[in-house]
Design goal:
Elements lengths: L2 H8 L8 E7 L9 E7 L2 E9 L5 H11 L8 E5 L4 H9 L3 E4 L4 E5 L2 E5 L4 H8 L12 H11 L3 H4 L10 H8 L3 H13 L3 E5 L2 E4 L2 H20 E6 L17 E3 H9 L7 E4 L5 H6 L3 E2 L5 E4 L17 H9 L4 H19 L3
Parallel strand pairs: 3-4, 4-5, 12-14
Antiparallel strand pairs: 1-2, 2-3, 5-6, 6-7, 8-9, 10-13, 10-14, 11-12
Length: about 350
């Protein structure tokens, strides 16, 4: 925890009569001894548990909002980051997530107090992000992204650990993920070094710190891997064309908004995403799809061994659907992503 940075940030918060903000160690509970932000205002005292993030963008905010959406401890959560820009600050405020950054941007909501400050000069952001130790974590390599997905989506990950892909030999992992043997070795070394994989004994590996791993995977998937998968765009004749379209008949699966609509019945899709190795001409003709670089139908090449998610026979795995939604930075999609997290993902990433 960078206590000095927070102390400096507190000095940049506007003076408000009766408001006193200090840092003190927690005196009880599982966080005893850790720094807390203590906010005293007009006789009310609120304590916030400080959670540090070195990297913050709208995708990270969406993930955080999903994770905290039904968390009873949310009111005591305080995010501390090097810099929170206007967009991220507004997203955090909308989701009721208190925060402070090193530039003095802040959102605090306590009884009788509503403090929201964003929009200070971008020059300060560049200076802050350039300080050694404050840069974001190194992005995953492509092979590591593919392997992390394979591990997290493996049904045997917790139910039959001896049969889980993570505990197979490197050759089997390579065959199961489509990654070369050398890349499997390098990716495993990366995960071991980062503390996401722990080896207990020969052929006994555990996938740990999964929530943090999932968040990193979603961010890197959306910015590094997903853009390389886009093959084609089409324009559909009507908004509801997908309701009578069945890509699973020829080996494709829905991703993104359509898959989310099928999983949650909460979203009305505006963009249709299909993951497929090849789209038959018959499908294009039957649905009157027209090629259009700016069209509302996107075809992506799957990076995994394509198979439908067991719970939805024509949809990609919820991990993919969630990442698709998070990459859009659209409010309605982020709200739906929260539902998918609660229904399908929380049990995977918060079990270890």
């Amino acid at each position: 925890m960078n206590s000095m940075a927070i102390q400096e940030a507190l000095g940049k918060i506007p003076d408000i009569a009766g408001l006193n903000i200090t840092m003190e160690p927690a005196i009880s509970g599982e966080l005893a001894g850790s720094d807390q932000l203590v906010v005293a205002y007009k006789g009310d005292i609120c304590r916030f548990n400080i959670h540090r993030r070195s990297d913050l963008n709208t995708t990270a905010v969406a993930i955080l909002a999903s994770r905290l959406s039904l968390d009873e401890k949310r009111s005591n959560y305080l995010l501390h980051a090097p810099y929170v820009n206007i967009t991220c600050g507004e997203r955090l405020r909308q989701n009721g997530i208190n925060f402070i950054d090193d530039a003095g941007h802040v959102f605090l909501k306590t009884p009788g107090l509503y403090l929201f400050v964003v929009g200070r000069e971008a020059k300060l952001a560049r200076k802050i992000m350039a300080i050694p130790g404050k840069s974001e974590a190194r992005s995953f390599k492509m092979a590591t992204l593919k392997m992390v997905y394979a591990f997290l989506s493996d049904p045997a990950l917790d139910s039959a650990r001896d049969k889980a892909l993570i505990n197979r030999n490197y050759r089997d992992i390579g065959e199961g993920t489509g990654i070369s043997l050398g890349s499997v070795s390098n990716a495993m070394e990366d995960l071991l070094a980062a503390g996401y994989v722990v080896e207990q004994a020969a052929s006994c590996r555990l996938l740990v710190n999964r929530r943090k791993l999932f968040e990193r995977w979603v961010q890197d998937y959306g910015t590094r891997l997903r853009p390389k998968l886009v093959e084609l765009h089409f324009r559909a004749p009507s908004p509801r064309w997908w309701q009578n379209a069945y890509p699973n008949r020829w080996g494709g699966v829905w991703g993104g908004e359509v898959a989310a609509a099928r999983m949650t019945e909460f979203l009305t899709p505006e963009t249709a995403t299909i993951y497929a190795e090849h789209v038959p001409d018959s499908f294009v003709l039957e649905n009157d799809l027209r090629k259009d670089p700016a069209g509302n139908v996107e075809i992506l090449r799957p990076f995994w061994r394509l198979r439908p998610f067991d719970g939805e026979g024509d949809c990609a795995h919820p991990l993919i659907v969630y990442a698709d939604l998070a990459a859009t930075d659209i409010d309605r999609n982020l709200q739906t992503a929260q539902r998918i997290y609660e229904q399908h993902i929380r049990q995977i990433v918060e079990s270890a």
